[in-house]
Amino acid sequence: VNAENNCIVIFGASGDLTHRKLIPALYNLYQIGRLTEHFSVLGVARTELNDEDFRQKMREALIRSEKAEGETLEKFCSHLYYQAVNTSDSTDYGKLIPRLDELHDKYQTCGNTLYYMSTPPSLYGVIPECLAAHGLNTEEYGWKRIIVEKPFGYDSKTAKALDVQIHRFFEEHQIYRIDHYLGKETVQNLLVLRFSNGLFEPLWNRNFIDYIEITGAESIGVEERGGYYDGSGAMRDMFQNHLLQVLAMVAMEPPAIINADSMRDEVAKVLHCLHPLSEEDVKNNLVLGQYVSSDIHGETVKGYTQEKGVPADSTTETYMALRCEIDNWRWAGVPFYVRTGKRLPTRVTEVVIHFKTTPHPVFSQKAPENKLIIRIQPDEGISMRFGLKKPGAGFEAKEVSMDFRYADLATPSLLSAYDRLLLDAMKGDATLFARTDAVHACWKFVQPILDYKAERGRVYEYEAGTWGPTEADKLIAKTGRVWRKPS
Ligand code: BG6
What we know:
By secondary structure, this protein is of the alpha/beta class. 34% of the residues lie in helices and 21% in strands. The strands form three sheets. A nine-stranded mixed sheet has the order 16-15-14-13-7-12-11-8-17, with helices on both faces. A six-stranded parallel sheet has the order 3-2-1-4-5-6. The longest helix is centred in the C-terminal third of the chain and has 21 residues, at 436-456. It is globular and about 80 Å long. The structure holds 6-O-phosphono-beta-D-glucopyranose. The site of 6-O-phosphono-beta-D-glucopyranose (BG6) has 3 residues, from loops. Residues 9-189 form the Glucose-6-phosphate dehydrogenase NAD-binding domain. Residues 191-484 form the Glucose-6-phosphate dehydrogenase C-terminal domain. Belongs to the glucose-6-phosphate dehydrogenase family. Substrate binds at residues 180, 184, 218, 237, 342. One of its GO terms (molecular function) is NADP binding.
């Protein structure tokens, strides 16, 4: 299904996200024919630019992304427009009215408008109010939808307040909270793997699963984003949103059908079942870390506090590991070990399902563990590990692997996360967007960790290029387990 005819208004059009992700995503959709000619993009920001200046900037960005050239590029760029608006001044939003009228007219987009807030979060409450002051939120003439980028709030209280602000002017069905992890093919594949195979689902519970690891490792540091990251840390940047969404996909109950309501009901339900963390739980089950300078392959890598925009005495965590549990029938007693960090040895996002061992050891030596490794990125795929007989005398078991590589299925026109999510928003399909109850369940769960961290959370050092502080190894070793070290 193609996108519905519409005008996409991007607030924060001069920002990084617009030229790095949003415009390339729209271009890709255009190129593969998922956007018809009936669309326009109106970039909005404070900077004074005209349509041609904006087109030129976006053209350059698309050429840099090495995706675009020739006639298609020119045709796509002719759909781009720009309007300078002082985004904190309500009266200035009046300038959008004639522009939108003109674009809806020209492209026959029937008033359908998708607002994308790709601005600093301080404007997330302001923009809806200013749009409403000019009636730009009403659905009398065409639909109006609003996409909110992360972070959705800074903690439980601010997330609730933001929701109240947005809900004053937009109804929940108009709000699309984007979490780009939900747009990843392989995160969606978790659902297909679980719910379309009679093989796995019967084993997917406390009777057969020993524990689950979820890893979101990055080898890069904070790069140019030190200023933003220092106010956020791994907990808010990766865990509260992306990794908890992945956890929900792993742990949720099957929805009766895949549509926005039933899917999101199940996601919210499982997130509400996360075992609430007492102060004692946080103390015993959480490890925070910060990378310090080290030599990687003969090159000295900066420590976090030496990064641009980061205060020299910062205690922001660039690593976190947490053991958590889900209080429901399916998962009672199964630990979920979740970790994420910057400047780890490699970039990998994966889920590892560790199955219980056989009840009685028949052979003399310990059998290899049965695990299912679901690789979300890169080298997307699934690997099943189990024991088979080592050829030769005796009955020695060795670990073997059955591997599936996602690339073997994919066609070259695979949609990236932003392609997929923008297309869904333009189709009015909110299945892969976070609903208000799920976002608040995540914040509710994370809040005791934030409180603990603010008061007495210790942040351990780890050398850049290693798998985090040794305390994280001790955390999982308490139950005799070890973290997998993916390469
Ligand atoms: C973003 C975070 O949301 O996700 C970044 O702000 C992080 O810090 C990024 O690097 C990771 O996304 P991906 O798709 O590269 O795993």
